[in-house]
Records
---
Amino acid sequence: MDRKADPETQLEVDEAILDYLIYTAITSLLKLLDTIDISPRKQHNAHLLVQMVDTFLPVFRALHADYKASPEIQLRLRLFQFTYVFVQHYHPFSGVNTAFARRPSTSTTTETPRDPANSYQEHHPQAMPLEQTLPLFLALSAVQNELQGSTITEIWMVLAAGYMAQSYIEQVVVYQNRSSSLLDQAFHWGYDEDCPAEQASEQRQINDMFGADESSVRLWGSIREEHIRALYPPKDTSLVDHLENMASGALSVVTFKEKVSEFLAGLLSAYQPPLLIQLERGQVNGLSRKATKALKLRSGFLHEAMDET
């Protein structure tokens, strides 16, 4: 007799698997940002986990067409998407083919990168330009703030302004973009009380995040202007030389990557890990170790539970 799982039970199981894969993929990707010398094993593991998510997600959506993810899983999906494209920018996977790298391009980049021997370009292999990843970073931040009922902090504003500065430096130094509007484009983000975007759109969420209160609007304006001024070269110094100096000093690329990595790790740890991760660790939130062991037996972690007796 053909036996099929109860649809509700099947959804719970598939959701647990999806959440587990997303979480482990993010964790593996973050290890690539935290490591100066990335071993082939670490890169292979991250690559494999990204492909597993990319394979499982469309199957999940096909099986559960009416599924609406919880706010936490939605956030983790966004976190995975951004973490992936950010890591890809600095540490491209060879031959990777994931849907998360195939977003519509809004880039102003038209030039080819400079000679890889360039000191700044050593940190920038050919990948999705930072200017294309910036909206993902801002949208992720906006969703997090909305979920937590919080507002942006000064620390976050400095990180965001640094991100905009890095995207500008990359366009000038790596892509040799000399558009007169480039600096304004990089730093155009902020609060617009006449924002024309639809209420539920990402653009509206980002706009509202910057305009949470009057003090935030003023502080962001000050931090943004400070970063813009820092990008203007002093007299008798070329723009490219000045930006390369900034990227190895006050606006260090290495420090920038570390700060973004800390931000992402903080988002990941702000919520309870997926149930399967908790089971792996031997302690489910709200349950005793004995109750966790019993749950592991019922959930298919039998061999692990037996090993602990």
---
Amino acid sequence: MVAETKLYDSLSIKPESTQDEIKKAYRKAALKWHPDKNKDNPAASEKFKEVSQAYEILSDPEKRKVYDQYGLEFLLRGGREAPQPGPGGSGGMPFEGGMPAGFNMGGMGGMPGGTRTFHYSTGGGGNGGFNFSDPGSIFSEFFKQGGAAMGDDDDIFASFGGGGMGGRSSGGGGAGGFGGSRGSRYKESNGGPRHRAPTPEVTTVERPLPVTLEELFKGTKKKMKIRRKTFDPTGKRSMEEKTLEIDIKPGYKVGTKIKFKGVGDQEEGGTQDMHFIINEKEHPLFKREGDDLRATIEIDLKEALTGWSRTISTIDGRQIKPSAGGPTQPGHEITYPELGMPKSKKPSERGNMIVQVKVKFPTSLTPAQKTRLKEIL
């Protein structure tokens, strides 16, 4: 038998509910009453505050034990000894003189049972009593501790918890610090002053962008269709398709980030940014080294000793003919200036094209071939 059921009633659960049931009830109620989803309903902020503060007590086994035994008034006033029964007997309120500062109950005048409404603020009872945390902080910690992984509407709650609470600073006013702002977070000592903690920024989503070497040489524009989570005018979670045009400049290198602001999922603190990161596709001939391009050609031992010639294409389609009269050492390089990649900061300038020679040696020789080579060399 509990002293009162006000906090359980606010979460629409029974006093014998388990911790998992309490978490699920808070999750459902927080989604229903969150101010960001009820911008046209001023009462939603107060309801959100009530369910958050009810969860703060009931999710803590020690606070819940005190609450179940003596009631919220005793907890808010910081009582250290069991209160004596009031005029109403064992079911009466543990203190006379009305509810403590910051707490107001209507309906049945504070007697347990029956229908009643209640409202309380973050001010607490003072004099060593319990101080409620800011509702935004309670909400944030819930997700930080894995609350977003519960239930079957994870895509909805991901908007609040996917990257932490959003990045807007708090203006302080309104119910529980939600007046005109979102995502306020506080730390507090037991009975002491609350200190504002920094709110995290809106998350950034990074995606690889595969590009060919020819596209990086000439520059190109790519259209990328994305799907993002948004809220419709009624506050319902929905999916939206959006097409982005990505401008790839000549000479961009691997790792270059092309940034779009405010085009991703809508979160608690705003809308996600998206960064597309250049990822160079493998080329059949060239390997890029900064602004230079390296090509490798293979010749056999006979060519290495007596001379060779090849025809290869440059990155812009021209034909060149590297050659040597021999002997050619393994690893020999021929450099062609200004036939490499354009320099991103100076597009009129280019790096070099380097042709490296790889000599293919025979895997075996007959005795007669060895003798002949010894005579020649």
---
Amino acid sequence: MGVVLLKNLFAYGQPTGAGLITTSARAHPAQKTRRCEKGLDGSLVSSASLSSGDLESQRSTTPAEPCNSNSWIRGAWTALTGFRPTARMISDAIIGLADGMTVPFALTAGLSSLGSTRIVQLGGIAEVIAGIISMGVGGALGAKAESDGFKALMADTTKLVLGSSADAIDLVHETLQPYGFDLDQRNVVSEQLRQSSEKMVDFLIRFHHQEKEPDSSRPWSCGITIGLGYGVGGLIPLIPYFCVGPREVFLALYISIGVMAVTLFLFGYFKTVLLAEKDCEKSTWKAFKGGLWMLALGGGSAAVAVGAVYGIQMASPPGEH
């Protein structure tokens, strides 16, 4: 039975009999994960059902995908581009785009108070270039720190397993107990894992620490994705200033405000669509609120910047305006 339990633990990714459990279930093992179909709620397997047979008999019942009335957007993107971005890549792109569309927009709006499109153009381009570099390097360093942290955790766990098998077995018991494994079952699993230090380390990393080894290319992909996202987002509010005359800065500002209002709302809407796990009946409303929140964030940043520049001008002596 111990071999069967281990096989199911590593096959399903979590010590349950209904497939993978969600992040919320990891944090609260007693809470059932929500599914769209009744009866597929990801409930934990009791001791009696574990001892009755192989959990693979439940594989035929595939958990339903979480309800998402906007899933067609992801499918359309995959069909058009032939590329399905990972959640990490989407998250990195959102970080870059969000900063790129708010910071340069606020800067260009503030510089517009000076009355010259040339100043806005030069200041905006300088800010976007600096932002691409700083955001890209920051993202790469952050991903590198994440990778280094995983290596340190792996080394500490390996040292624990090789140096103190009793402590490692205690961690196995501590990991399995919240998921409905009784003492006998925990002893069987612990005994099986104790025969292989590699499996013991793998088990503790995956199930106790709930960590996954980052991709070796993660620092580069993270830095490039965030940097490019910042560059794309930062150029959007700058475009109108290149399409007007040298003294038509306020016309460019009004056009930029209109363009950014639409862009920020759409960005917030589709960001929510791509990343959020939504209830079927409320998905559209949640996405709409995400668009409004992004619009308020970007608009508020621009208003503060314009107010700050205007206030400085008003506070300066008349000869320095």
---
Amino acid sequence: MSIQAPLSSTYFQFATLNGFFHQDVIETDPVTFRYEDWSFGLIDRPYPTDPSYDPHGSKSQWQRFAHYVEDLQARSDAAEQYKVLFLGRHGQGVHNVAEAFYGTKNWDCYWSLQAGDGTYNWTDPLLTPTGIKQVETARLAWTRGLAGDKMPPPQSYYVSPLSRCLETARITFSELELPSDRPYQPLVKEQLRETIGAHTCDKRSSLTFLREKFPTANFEPGFADDDPLWLPRLRETPAATAARLKLLLQDIFENDGHVWLSLTSHGGAIAGILRAIGHREFVLPTGGVIPVFVRAQRIDGVPPREPDEPWEPIVSCPEPPPPEA
């Protein structure tokens, strides 16, 4: 099973522009790096536009970077785009706690295929108290960044359809002091979700439920009431996830002319986006955020067909395995 792009006469080729964020740099350790302590990771460096924009050195690092990015975009033609994507991972969910408790091997072969364990239910789970605290850390980082560092707020907000991401985005952004022309108006995109299939935590709730639970969220046209993608015995491969996320980026870059975008998603999905844009691997903790500076070049011709990689059948355990040592 694969998701292929519709026939088109052009497509975008993506590349990460390195050297702007600490997360770009190979020496930065994803395990120990704390984006909230480093102004989201923006590197202190000059830009070619500094002499004309900030001759007296009075602007913040983020103001100078924002001017540089927007100047590049303003001078680019229709065949080239520049965007900064803020990729945020949801806070800790019930399923994350369950996997840590049972161990990844037992989780993958048995517990992830169940709706819960009799104590907790992790089908499309919400955040734990710890997860809420992680997301509140992200909200505080945004608050400080907007007010103190003069960061540009997102112009568009994209969110995975899974409840933990909708809850994460709501806690992070809904109470920020945002300019009137950049309100928090999340758009839910089906393809922004986690690796699809088998794991019940990655089966989304119905549109009816999501609208009731998250009334301020907007859903893209054609969003089905029931989950059309989740399969109980097959799991999407990492290559298939990356191909799906590349198609999502094609859609966003084709239809959104804004420069500053927020995408609230999952560990596997963010890994797929990073792979699609040529960024180095950078594993985010729950609640983590990574900004990436992306150039997209429009290429004439039919987009290359992504490898039709079949989803993997799940190797399951017939009964609950003993706890890992």
